[in-house]
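Quick one: sequence plus NAP SMILES, need structure tokens.
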Amino acid sequence: MASHRWLIPHLRHIVVIHGLQGQLMLGLLLAQHLEEFYGAFACGLIEQLVVERQGVLLALHGQPKNFGEIHTRLVLHIHEIVAALDILDPLEFVAGDAFVQALFLEFLEQNGVPVITGVCEAQAKKLNEFFIKYVGTGRPFVIAKCAATLDGRIATRTGDSRWVTGEAARRFVHQLRHKVDAIMVGINTIRNDDPSLTTRLPGLQGSDPTRVILDTHLTISPDARVLQQASAAPTILVAGIHVAGNKKTAIEKAGARVLKVALKNDLIDMNLLMQQLGAMELTSLLIEGGSRVLASAFNHAVVDKVFFFYAPKILGGDDGVPICSGPSAEYMDECIGIRDIAVHRLGDDVLIEGYVEAG
Ligand SMILES: NC(=O)c1ccc[n+]([C@@H]2O[C@H](COP(=O)([O-])OP(=O)(O)OC[C@H]3O[C@@H](n4cnc5c(N)ncnc54)[C@H](OP(=O)(O)O)[C@@H]3O)[C@@H](O)[C@H]2O)c1
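Reply:
Sure thing.
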């Protein structure tokens, strides 16, 4: 059997690897493919199942009423389960699924099905980083992104930032927007750039993330593009709890939502905001700037991952907008560390990807 065992670590859900009598089957299991998948079990085509935690969740969660039937088929056909992540753990946090968990564990035990965990664990963790952060903390996985010149400026002194990077980098950002649940900027970015904050992928249908704008005093112009464009995704203005009801009503009439959050040092409290976004089931958040919002997100330790783009150009002074603004650490050993760095080339630009070191 081992010689026929294939493993495809980059598939998100369930990968079926090995069929009987040398027939090999590969399959990506999404919730909507469940029937097909269990059909393959029933035909005896599948001998081994490689699962990754989200796949298990979806499989069991997708058709709980049919669990008995699935159960029987599993008894007949599963020889071994190879899981990337600890199989006991993910079942704990499926809404109301203590029942499913108990059934599944009972099934494994009664049938002596060996469970091997930790296979391709690092890849699986990376693939599911949004999900793992969200279920573990109730907060979104946060990515901080910026596009800077080589001398570390994200806009000129006049606020001009169109465009720092080239087309390939900008396309990458639109792909990122398509993947995340929400995207966030500060009100100054809205004032300066008037962005639409939508996903634009030429020739492809991208989904727009929820737009989150930090605007403590609700000063956004009713003409701002984020309040104008037709998009299925909501726009949320995050304001201080003090803002007057009439301002809130005016924004809501313009089609956006207002989320009131307590302030910390006169700005929206980042940690409270993350909790509230998590409560709204936003599992991932891309912070696109500007300078004050990025600084605040780093200094309040809400960022998990960075995507910093550097364009091969130098602004040549110190009056442009820096990546982060405001007071910073006094000593180099107080810097926020970035680990697991990967460097990519997109056209002429360089992308540095990395994870924020905890604590
Ligand atoms: N190249 C890039 O990647 C990129 C991306 C985005 C923006 N930009 C550039 O960045 C510039 C704007 O940056 P900026 O620093 O002036 O403004 P910003 O970060 O866009 O917005 C900052 C404002 O957001 C509000 N805010 C509310 N809560 C906050 C919190 N917890 N932390 C930080 N801000 C909070 C505050 O205004 P209130 O007190 O009024 O609420 C604050 O002054 C523009 O020139 C834009 O072109 C560049």
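The longest strand covers residues 141-149. The two ends are 45 Å apart (CA to CA).
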